[in-house]
Every structure is written in C-alpha cells, then in structure tokens.
Design brief:
The chain is mainly alpha-helical and 679 residues long. Helices cover 72% and strands 3% of the residues. The protein starts with 13 loop residues before the first helix and ends with a helix. Belongs to the crooked-neck family.
C-alpha cells in the first residue's frame, strides 16, 4: 500500500516519456538484408514466392482492398500489365463500390498509355457509381488532355443528367469558356438555373447566387443587355415571397457600373419597401454608400430617414407598449411623410391600449391621442379632430379614472371652432361622469373668460358641494364676489369656509379672510378674526401676525396695542412645550422694542431672553435597546427659573464645584503661584 499519496516533486508528462523513447529508439528494428538477383531462375523463384505471399494474404482476408492494390502495383512494377489487370478485376468482383480501387485501376491504364482500356474503366465506374464526382472529374480531364473536346463534352452532358452539385456545372461552364464557346456556356447557365428534377418537379439550384453568377458572366463578356435581362428575370422569378437582399444589391451595383443612377435608386427603394427590415441591413448600407457617392442632400436624408424608420419599427414590434418609441417614430414620420402615412402610424400606435386599467399605465398612452388630435387639427380638417377626441373619451374608463386634460382640450377645440354649446356640453358631461378639481377649475376659467358670472357662481357651488375641504376654491369664490363688488356675499363665503369641519389648508384660508378684512379696512372685524383664530390655535406665527397687524393699523394706540399682544403671547406660551417658538416670539418682540421701544422696555425684554445651554439625553433603538447619547440645546427662561427654586440650587452647586476645582489646582502647584505673584 502506498502511504504517501502526495504528488511527487518532479512531475513527468506523457510528452517527456515519448520524447525519451524516441531518443533511445528502443523499438528500432534493423532493415532487412538486400537480395541480389543474378539470373532468370532466381527472378522466377522470387516472383513465385512473392505471388504466393500475396495470394496467401488475399486468401486470409479477401475484403482488405489494400492487399489487392499492393499485389496489382507489384505486378505493374514488373511490367506484368495483364496480370495486374486480372488482379484489379478480381478485386472489383470482391468490392466494386471501393472508389480507391477504381481510381488505381484507371491510373494504371493511363500511366501505361492504355487509353481505350482507361476509357472502358471510366465508363464502367461512372455507370456503376454515378454519384462519385471524382470519377467524372478525372474522366473529363483525361479526355480534355487527350484533345478529345467532343468526348469530354459528351461526358459532361452525361454527368449533367444526374443533377450534380454546383461545382460540376461550373466546371462544365469553365470547360466551354476555355474553348471560347460563350453561347454553349450561356445555354449551360440557362439549364443550370432552371433545370428541374423530372420526378420531384422542384428546382435543383434555385439559389440567388446562381442567378447572380449568371448575370456576372454576361457582364464579364460585355453582354450588358443580357445581364440586365437576367437580373429582371431573377426578380420576377423569386417574386415578393422569396425576396433576397443580395440579388437587389448585385442588380443595383450592375446598374451603377452602367451609370444608370436613377435605375439604381428605383431598385433600392423597391427592395426596401418590400423586404423585411431585419433582412435588409446590407441593403441599407449599400444604399447609403450609393447616395453619398452619387446622390444629393435630399437623397441622403431619405435613406437616413428610412434607416431610422426601420429602427423604430423594430422597437415597436419588440414592445408595442413602448410609447416613447412611438412618440419618436411619429415625430420622424410627421417631419417626412404624407398625411395618410402619419395617420396610419397614429392608428397603429393608439391601438396598443394599456392592458391594465390603472392610471399610471395610461399617462404616456393618453399623449398619443393628444398628439393625434393636435396633428389632425393643424394639418387636416376639424371633423376628424372631433372624431379623435370623441373616440378617446369613449375609450377612457371614467368609472375608474379619467384625464381632465383630455376633456379640457376637447372643450378648447370646440371653442376654437366657435361651437360654444358643444364645449359646455362636453365639460358638463365630464363633471357629471367623473368630477375632478381640474375639470371644475377649467370650466370656471372658461366661463370667467366669457364673463358669464352667474354660471361661475353655479359652478363654484357645485364645486364646493363636491369638495368642501378645498380651501383654494373657497378663496377663489370669495375673490370673485369681491371683484364683482358683493362684499357681504364674499364675507358670508369666508364664514362658511372657516366653519367647515375639514379643510386641506386652513392657515391659507384664514390668512385670505384676514387680508380681505384688512383690504376693507374693517380693523375691529380683523381683530375679532385673530381672536377667533387664537381660540383654535396658539401658534407663534398667529401672535406675531396679530402684533404686526396692530403695528400697521395706523392708529394712535398702535404701539401699546402691539406691546400688549406680545405680553399676552408671552404669557400664553409659557406652558408651550416648543421652546423654539417662544424664543421666536421673544426675538420678534425684541426687534419691535429696538425699533420703537424705550431704554426701559429694551432692558425688560433683555431680561426675558433665555439662556442657551447644551444637554445630553439617552437614545433608544426601535427594539428598546440603548443606542447611545446625543447632545441637544435647551433654553432656560428667567421667568421659569424664578418659579423653580431647584434651578437656583443647581446653579449654586455648579459655582461651588468650580471654586473647588480652582483651589485644588492652586494647592497642587504652589511654585507657579509664587512666580505669578513675583511677576
């Protein structure tokens, strides 16, 4: 047993083993001794022994053809052609399908200039094995080398009846061209591309490349009309079902060589319109190169547009709901194509309705309809535009969601067409089906522009019934009444508004109401409004705003009133937990006193200002564990300190601790105190 299974330090590869064996030549055998034959009897004896050896080998295994071939070649080396021929015939009786046997047999006859025997062997070979092309190639080559052109042509004709591969046809054509038989080569090409199998009735070689080779053959021999006819026949032959870009590229290049640039352009456009875009990459490339070489600016732009259209077609085919790709595609089509083409692309785009009825999936899709309607209005007639808007509005699931933009654009379109009843009907329908703030605002704005104030009042009433918490609507309604001069209605609207149980922006509503009363110079009502607001909230900004109002009221007692508001606010906010708001109030009060107060009032407000101190508090994580400490700033107000004796005791303790630290430091370093006293 091997105990140490670790790999050896020196590794030996198979390559090293083979190299060492070659260098040492371990299996090298000495060559056999040479035998010298001096007379006929020794020669006959040698022949007898060799023939016996060969016959024994053949008898052992008749199917090993190499034994037969070695035997025949040995007889051939002795110029015993008849014996070699007999051996080959015996071998063919054993395996007549062996290609090598036929080739060696025929080569022996040709090598010994037995032409008729060689022809006989080739005829037997191609009759027995007609699908072995090598027999045909060698047979035709032998006849051509012998100068028997007619015989070689006859062999080619026999070969073509077997419908061989393409190279065989090209060999036949090249054979005819070597002897300047252009007409014969043309007839072979005709048979080559249109030859039908008798049994299957299908084309043997219907490839496009064969037609192209035929046309180039005609072009090479300066038969340009024939070449053009070949290309035209190829286009007609393959039709629109089996179109290939290589055929059209070759056709276009042929016409380009003939300086027929208009024909080239027509060929490229014809092909690009009919070949699937994913199969026309090479066609696009060649068309672009042609236009850059021989076209004008318009032609180059056309090919670039065509290429971009192909890209967009691929994108929308891959994902029909990629609306951004549709937008880019439509932008391109609108800049280049006619109205019918643009309309067709729009119809294809809007047919891709989002599969899910959720508004977020429809937000991009709806702009396809909007752009379609605007295009029809600007480029086409109004009747189609109305149909587009109506079709879009019928498509939208209004019970789940709607798009106010679409209703408003339709109404604006009808107004541009001077059809006001239809616009009002559309907006009324929208409010009835799917009321939204934006729809109410758009309808009210329309009626305001038309100066229909009674309609505006009705719309505002409907709007506020639908959304009573919308402060902006209340404010706009009151402003409308103010503009119309009906102050009592405006005030009543404000009173109704602030009495609502739920409001989205109450501070904006109260501010608007207060500003309204200030504009009307109703100062007592303004003060009452402030007091009513302070009953609901004690926010510092309300107190500051009231103080500023008293300051700007313009009366003789404005300063005492303002100072009284600040004092009342300070008393009210002592119980407030938000100390920053109280600091904000005191800073506003101090600013007021610095501008309008006396020295005594300034000193008084300075005494009220708090002290800012840094504190630490313990933090806890969400799971209740300790999360460390944090520092924060706190404010200590003098008024609160006077009411809390514990704070005074704490301050005295801090002062005592500081004095203790100073005395300990002095006792620890007496020399320093002496030096300082001497100094």
């Amino acid at each position: 047993q091997v105990k140490n299974k670790a790999p050896a330090e020196v590794q030996i590869t198979a390559e090293q083993l083979l190299r060492e064996a070659k260098e040492r030549e371990l299996e090298l055998l000495p060559p056999p001794p040479q035998q010298k034959i001096t007379d006929v009897e020794e020669l006959n004896d040698y022949k007898l022994r060799k023939r016996k050896t060969f016959e024994d080998n053949i008898r052992k295994n008749r199917t090993v053809i190499s034994n037969w071939i070695k035997y025949a070649q040995w007889e051939e080396s002795l110029k015993e052609i008849q014996r070699a021929r007999s051996i080959y015939e015996r071998a063919l009786d054993v395996d007549y399908r062996n290609v090598t046997l036929w080739l060696k047999y025929a080569e022996m006859e040709m090598k010994n200039r037995q032409v008729n025997h060689a022809r006989n062997i080739w005829d037997r070979a191609i009759t027995t094995l007609p699908r072995v092309n090598q027999f045909w190639y060698k047979y035709t080559y032998m006849e051509e080398m012998l100068g028997n052109v007619a015989g070689s042509r006859q062999v080619f004709e026999r070969w073509m009846e077997w419908q061989p591969e393409e190279q065989a046809w090209h060999s036949y054509i090249n054979f005819e061209l070597r002897y300047k038989e252009v007409d014969r080569a043309r007839s072979i090409y005709e048979r080559y591309i249109l030859f039908r199998a008798l049994a299957a009735l299908v084309l043997v070689h219907p490839d496009v490349k064969n037609w192209i080779k035929y046309a180039r053959f005609e072009e090479k021999h300066s038969y340009f009309a024939h070449a053009r006819k070949v290309y035209e026949r190829a286009v007609e032959f393959f039709g629109e079902e089996h179109m290939d870009e290589h055929l059209y590229v070759a056709f276009a290049k042929f016409e380009e060589n003939q300086k027929e640039f208009e024909r080239v352009r027509v060929i490229y456009k014809y092909a690009l319109d009919r070949i699937p875009k994913q199969d026309a990459q090479n066609l696009f490339k060649n068309y672009t190169i042609f236009e850059k070489k021989f076209g004008d600016r318009r032609g180059i732009e056309d090919i670039i547009v065509s290429k971009r259209r192909f890209q967009y077609e691929e994108e929308v085919k891959a994902n029909p709901h990629n609306y951004d790709a549709w937008f880019d595609y439509l932008r391109l089509v609108e800049s280049d194509a006619g109205a019918e083409s643009v309309r067709e692309v729009y119809e294809r785009a809007i047919a891709n309705v989002p599969p899910i009825q959720e508004k977020r999936h429809w937000k991009r899709y709806i702009y396809l309809w909007i752009n379609y309607a605007l295009y029809e209005e600007l480029e086409a007639k109004a009747k189609r535009t109305r149909q587009v808007y109506q079709a879009c509005l019928e498509l939208l699931p209004h019970k789940k969601f709607t798009f106010a933009k679409m209703w408003l654009l339709y109404a604006q379109f009808e107004i541009r067409q001077k059809n006001l009843p239809l616009a009002r009907r559309a907006l009324g329908t929208s409010i009835g089906k799917c009321p939204k703030n934006k729809l109410f605002k758009g309808y009210i704005e329309l009626e305001l522009q038309l100066r229909e104030f009674d309609r505006c009042r009705k719309l505002y009433e409907k709007f506020l019934e639908f959304a009573p918490e919308n402060c902006t609507s209340w404010i706009k309604f009151a402003e409308l009444e103010t503009i119309l001069g009906d102050i009592d209605r405006a005030r009543a609207i404000y009173e109704l508004a602030i009495g609502q149980p739920r409001l989205d922006m109450p501070e904006v509503l109260w501010k608007s109401y207060i500003d309204f009363e200030i504009e009307q110079e109703e100062y007592e009502k303004t003060r009452n409004l402030y007091r009513r607001l302070l009953q609901r909230t004690q926010h510092v900004k309300v107190w500051i705003s009231l103080a500023q109002f008293e300051l700007s009221a313009g009366q003789d007692e404005r300063l005492p009133r303002c100072r009284q508001v600040y004092e009342e606010a300070n008393r009210a906010m002592r119980s407030c937990e938000e100390k920053e708001e109280r600091v904000m109030l005191l800073e506003a009060w101090r600013s007021f006193e610095e501008e309008f107060g006396t020295q005594a009032t300034k000193e008084r407000i300075d005494k009220l200002m708090p002290e800012k101190i840094k504190k630490r508090r313990k933090l806890q994580a969400e799971d209740g564990s300790d999360a460390g400490w944090e520092e924060y700033y706190d404010y200590i107000f003098p008024e609160d300190t006077a009411n809390q004796p514990n704070l005074k005791l704490l301050a005295m303790a801090k002062l005592w601790k500081k004095q203790q630290q100073e005395s300990e430091a002095a006792a620890a370093d007496p020399d320093k105190d002496i030096d300082e006293s001497q100094t």
